[in-house]
Each structure stands twice: as structure tokens, then as C-alpha cells.
Amino acid sequence: MTVSDGFFQPVSGMDLPRFAGVPTFMRLPSVPPEHARFGEVDIGLVGVPWDGGTTNRPGPRHGPRQLRDASTMIRAENGATRVRPFERVKCADLGDVGPNPADLQDTMERVTAFYEKLVDAGIRPLTAGGDHLVSLPVLRALAKDAPLGMVHFDSHTDLFKSYFGGTMYTHGTPFRRAVEEGLLDQKRVVQIGIRGTAYDFEDRDFAAANGIRVIPIEECFARGWADVMTEACEIVGSAPTYVSYDIDFVDPAFAPGTGTPEVGGPNSFEALSVVRTLADVNIVGADLVEVSPPFDATGATAYLGASLMFELLCVMA
Ligand code: MN
Ligand code: MN
Questions:
Q1: Alpha carbon distances (Å) from 23 to 5, 124, 174, 282
Q2: CA–centroid distance for 111 within its chain
Q3: pLDDT band at 3 (very low <50, low <70, confident <90, very high)
């Protein structure tokens, strides 16, 4: 399929230099839900500027704006796979979900309501976070009818039961809640790159007891990424699958601008390469979360984040 409609093409650096103009995601047209052409969009890029689930160093609420700016560096064609996503599907920047920074439950309801509009319009979302709690209200909209599989890149499982005794909604708990709420088919969930120090192994015990496949970083490097990703693709199969990418999956030498960095991770080339293996997965939505501009002194994390969003877009297209 070829998109001939010029409206859905990004502004080319040949027409307006990439440092000029109002920054939207990848220089795509701005098409909020009230726009007349909203219903034509195939893949919608959405910002969720919210870090109300953050338990340690904050800042991902500033992620979408920084990712939009960095994403103006992205050109039309993938240099590795030769995919030209904007010619395959109609893409647009759908804007930000307006959070209520003082109310966690209200914000999650706002996020779910926004994504329900996308589901109703047949739009697949590519989300820029925000912290990882953002994924939960997104999944509530996308998995309304049936649980999804998930490929999850992260240093952390985000499968913990709670924090401080009874706090159930943080960026360390979204996928525990998602399993409990029937949003994920746990036999079709794979978590890749897990590492770092821990308070305890309660999350890993939950994963083991529920059939969730956790692939720690030691196993990734011992087996090699191609082998690990072949297994990941087999686990999710051909049924509808969500892809969730926490930037702290990447080694902090390459992505220091995040709240909970863990050393000993993949480099930026490996970080991009693993996404390219998902071309045959049935991806119904994806996110890139936990970019924290206040800790991103050089902007390198945001640029890697924007590049990862482009890789995700290419395999979704
Ligand atoms: Mn995470
Ligand atoms: Mn993480």
C-alpha cells in the first residue's frame, strides 16, 4: 500500500530545514481527535506527559516535548531496513493526553478515554511517555475486548505487587495490574534485558508462577540478541501484541537521561536492532517511556528515544 496523500507526509528537510518550524513528532501533521481527518489515521503518535507513577528520580513528564524536538532529526527512510513508513501508512501527531498532575486515578482515566477514541477510529497508537505507569491506562483501552501479548524491553519487570505497603499504582507495578485486570495474556508476555539490584525477587516469583518469560541481561549476552529475539517472537506468536520499550533497557552510557538507570545493558546499536526483529509481529500498539530530560544533559537520550520510536513505527507499518 502506498500513501499518496501529501497531507500525511512529514515536512521534508529539503523544503524546510529540520531545525526550523513547529516541532511535531517526526514533522508529521498535527491531527488531534477533533480534526476532520482524525478518522483517516492508521498510526497515531501520542504524547503522555505524565510521571505521577515515578518512585525515584522524576522528569518523564517532560519527555514528549523533548522527544518531539529530537524527532525532527528523523528522515523518511530507515537506513537499515529501507522501510519508508510514511509511504506505507497514514501517520500523524495526535497531540498530548492532558494529564491531571495532582491526581493519579483521574489521569489514568483521561489516558484511557483518549486511547478509546483511537481504538474506535481504528488507529494504532505509538506513545511517547511519560513514566512506565502510562502503559497501564493505554492497555485498558487496547485490551478492552481480549488480552494482548507483550514484548517488553526494560531493566525492570515492573511486575511488583505494591510500594510502601499498599500503594498499588507506580511505574514499578503496571504489568502486575495489567495481568490482574486480564489485559495481558501472561503466557504471551516476554520481558527482555532485566538486571540491576533489587529489594527482593517478589516480581520474578510472580512471573515464574504465572508463566511470564523473563530473559535477564546475562542470558541475552550469553545467547546473543538474534537468538533471544527469535524466542521472543515465538512467545507472542501471530496474535495481537503490544510492544513496551523502557529507555532504561539501554545502557546508561548511551541513555543516561532516565530516572532508574541500570549499568551493564545493550548499546544503542543493539537497542535499535532488537526492534527490527519484530517486523512480523502483529503489533496493535507500542510505547517508548521513561525518557527524563532533566537527567539528559546532552540530549542524547531523547535522540535515541526518537530513533527508537522510528524503529517501532517501521515495524508497525
Ligand atoms: Mn519500566
Ligand atoms: Mn525500567
A1: 21, 21, 30, 30
A2: 15
A3: confident
For residue 298, how far is its CA from the centre of ligand 2 (angstroms)?
A: 21
Helix then strand then coil, % of the chain, to nearest 5: 40, 15, 45
Alpha-carbon distance values, 41 to 29, 93, 112, 224, 290 (Å): 11, 10, 19, 37, 26
Q: Which ligand is nearest to the CA of 155?
A: 2
Contact by Cβ (8 Å): 248, 258: yes
Could you confirm whether domain 30-316 is CATH 1.10.472.20?
Answer: no
Average pLDDT of the residues of the chain: 97
Neighbours of ion ligand 2 (CB under 5 A): 154-156, 246, 248
Measuring CA to CA, which residue among 139, 90, 109, 128 is closest to residue 247? 128
For residues 125 and 67, what is the distance between their CA atoms, to the nearest angstrom? 16
Q: Tell me, what's the pLDDT at 299?
A: 97
Domain ranges in the chain? 30-316
**Amino acid, single-letter form, for residue 3:** V
DSSP structure class, residue 212: -
Query: Structure pTM?
Result: 0.98
Reported as a single tens digit per residue, the pLDDT across 162-194 is 999 899 999 999 999 999 999 999 999 999 999
- Is 93 within 8 Å of 41 (Cβ atoms)? no
Instruction: Classify residue 115 as left (phi > 0), alpha (psi -120 to 50) or beta.
Output: alpha
Look at residue 152 and give its three-state secondary structure.
strand
Distance in Å, CA 293 to ligand 2 centroid: 16
Distance (Å) from CA 170 to ligand 2 centroid: 12
Closest-approaching ligand to the CA atom of 248 = 2
Beta bridge partners of 96: 47
